[in-house]
């Protein structure tokens, strides 16, 4: 353990860098509450999405890194802001018209349109918990409704009333003139309608912990800030939650970054210590635009998991969180293959290299063994030429290439074969464009086929690659990339592919000769 700790203390992997900040924050010993608290927040107005996964996965990576260098206990809280008023009726629910009368009510006061849970907020919270449980995250769930109503938030809410002017001074600096006239950090929940009200305060009594306001009909009300009678606006709520829970670490997207000083200052005004925070870059779609839930651009988590494993998504989340990255379907094959490359490298690495390896962080220090004896990119190309033979057809080629492999002993490879068929069907096949070879290319391919007919060297991928390389060189391709690109375009209908020797080894020498013959006969283009 001490060797691991020594390696982790100098590792440049970003989770360890964040973990070391936390050790410095607590000065290496347990804080008064007895543990270090990690938090991630969730707005339950919609279903969990790929950003939710990324936030919890990355926070968990920092948590595991901290546990490797410090013995202080940890907790991870997933906090659902389900007191938030329903601002608009979702379109993707049964009978949306029936929800209109519940606009601006807290989500936990809106009937569940699916008829399964106590409220719409409870429904979405259940979806969040199911989502997190599916991926095996270790966390504790807190509902803002319970947090406000149970009294856990009361002390901080009373302090917010006492220090109302100080918090308002922070907030007003960030608001436009017209918003300043009506803004209050407190949002009353109307005693009769149950709606969350965005109204100015007539009076805030810090001594008695009450607020006085007029509702939309001009009636005056005085309510205690405790007991679930009010909620805080979202920016003050952020800082107040940090103070109430004594949060030590939270990460969020770059769109929050300008608000970080506000969250920090409000936390401090309310008597808390601002947490360590990590701001990550947002994901972009294939056109370089920010991914938006409302636009529906970019990949959803269900889409990723249709074509690849959870671990490959975790790998993609680990890479350079502070760099904007495209989240579109074409990043999946590379993520799958790089993840397995890292798994294969792990056993032979030094401890220093292992703690820098993404799979250490994905699997909490104990990554599994990779059984991917065939890359995902190669499986895609095999799917391209294997026709509609299905997964069993792919296994026929795999067994010949790797006789000891089987679905029972290589479950990750078996799963990847199914993913590859789905990916090929939905993305590769529709985009394929076969072409006829040029004269120089035709002559070279005829020669390649002839040499393969005479081949006696077995299925050694490197030797077959050398053979294909020699053919291109012998036929005057100054840039051998042009030769291999021609092979991909003529034989596979795409401009790039795997090492061609590996493809021959997997697909078979005789089968490759037959494929070349079909292409030269014009059966593919």
Give start-end ranges of low-pLDDT stretches: none
Helical amount among residues, as a percent range? 40-55%
What is the second-level CATH architecture of the domain at 2-150?
Answer: 3-Layer(aba) Sandwich
The CATH topology of the domain at 2-150 comes to Rossmann fold
Per CATH, the class of the domain at 2-150 reads Alpha Beta
Structural class: alpha/beta
Distance between the termini: 60 Å
Amount of beta strand:
5-15%
Description:
The chain is α/β, with parallel strands linked by helices and 525 residues long. Among the domains are: 2-150, 3-Layer(aba) Sandwich (Rossmann fold), CATH 3.40.50; 376-431; 439-520, Arc Repressor Mutant, subunit A (Orthogonal Bundle), CATH 1.10.10.350. Helix content is 48%, strand content 10%. It has helices at residues 2-10, 14-25, 50-69, 120-134, 144-149, 154-162, 164-172, 177-180, 234-245, 260-269, 301-307, 310-318, 332-345, 351-356, 358-362, 376-386, 390-401, 411-428, 439-453, 461-474, 480-492, 500-507, 509-520; strands spanning 36-42, 74-80, 140-143, 186-188, 201-205, 210-214, 220-224, 230-232, 249-253, 276-280, 283-284, 325-326. The strands form 4 sheets. A 5-stranded parallel β-sheet has the order 3-2-1-9-10. The protein is elongated, with a radius of gyration of 29 Å. The termini are far apart.
Please describe the structure with a list of short key phrases separated by commas or semicolons.
three-stranded antiparallel sheet, 525 residues, alpha/beta, five-stranded parallel sheet, Rossmann fold, 10% strand, Arc Repressor Mutant, subunit A
């Amino acid at each position: 353990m001490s060797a691991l700790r020594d390696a982790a203390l100098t590792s440049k992997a970003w989770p360890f860098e964040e973990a070391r900040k936390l050790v410095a924050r607590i000065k290496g010993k347990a804080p008064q509450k007895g543990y270090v608290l990690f938090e991630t927040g969730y707005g339950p107005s919609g279903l969990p999405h790929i950003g939710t996964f990324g936030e919890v996965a990355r926070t968990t990576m920092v948590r595991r890194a901290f546990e490797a260098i410090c013995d202080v206990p940890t907790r991870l809280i997933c906090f659902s802001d389900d007191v938030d008023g329903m601002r608009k009726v979702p379109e993707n629910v049964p009978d949306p018209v029936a929800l209109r009368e519940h606009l601006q009510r807290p989500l936990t006061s809106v009937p569940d349109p699916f008829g399964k849970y106590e409220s719409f907020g409870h429904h979405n919270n259940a979806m969040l918990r199911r989502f997190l449980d599916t991926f095996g995250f270790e966390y504790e769930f807190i509902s803002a409704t319970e947090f406000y109503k149970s009294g856990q938030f009361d002390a901080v809410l009373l302090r917010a009333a006492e220090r109302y002017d100080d918090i308002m001074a922070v907030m007003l600096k960030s608001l436009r003139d017209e918003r300043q006239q009506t803004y209050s950090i407190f949002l009353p929940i109307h005693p009769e309608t149950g709606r969350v009200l965005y109204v100015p305060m007539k009076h805030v009594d810090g001594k008695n912990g009450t607020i006085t306001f007029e509702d939309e009909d001009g009636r005056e009300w005085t309510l205690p800030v405790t007991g679930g009678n009010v909620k805080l606006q979202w920016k003050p709520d952020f800082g107040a939650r940090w103070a109430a829970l004594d949060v030590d670490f939270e990460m969020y997207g770059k769109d929050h970054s300008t608000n970080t000083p506000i969250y920090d200052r409000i936390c401090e005004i309310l008597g808390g210590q601002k947490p360590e925070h990590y701001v990550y870059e947002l994901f972009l779609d294939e056109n370089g635009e920010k991914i938006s839930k409302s636009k529906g651009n970019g990949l959803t988590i269900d889409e990723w998991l249709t074509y690849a494993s959870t671990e490959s998504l975790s790998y993609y989340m680990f890479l350079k969180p502070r760099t904007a990255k495209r989240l579109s379907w074409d990043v999946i094959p590379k993520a799958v293959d790089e993840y397995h490359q890292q798994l294969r490298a792990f056993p032979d690495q030094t401890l220093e290299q292992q703690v820098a390896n993404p799979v250490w962080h994905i699997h909490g220090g104990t990554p599994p063994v990779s059984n991917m004896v065939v890359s995902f990119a190669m499986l895609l190309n095999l799917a391209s030429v294997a026709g509609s033979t299905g997964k069993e057809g792919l296994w026929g080629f795999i067994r010949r290439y790797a006789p000891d492999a089987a679905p029972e002993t290589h479950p990750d490879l078996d799963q990847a074969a199914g993913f590859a068929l789905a990916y090929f069907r939905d993305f590769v096949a529709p985009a394929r464009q076969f072409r006829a070879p040029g004269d120089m290319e035709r002559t070279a391919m005829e020669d390649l086929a002839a040499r393969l007919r005479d081949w006696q060297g077995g299925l050694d991928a490197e030797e077959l690659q050398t053979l294909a390389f020699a053919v291109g060189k012998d036929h005057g391709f100054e840039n051998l990339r042009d030769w291999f690109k021609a092979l991909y375009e003529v034989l596979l209908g795409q401009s790039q592919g795997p090492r061609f020797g590996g493809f021959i080894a997997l697909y078979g020498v005789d089968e490759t000769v037959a494929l070349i013959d079909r292409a030269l006969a014009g059966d593919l283009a």
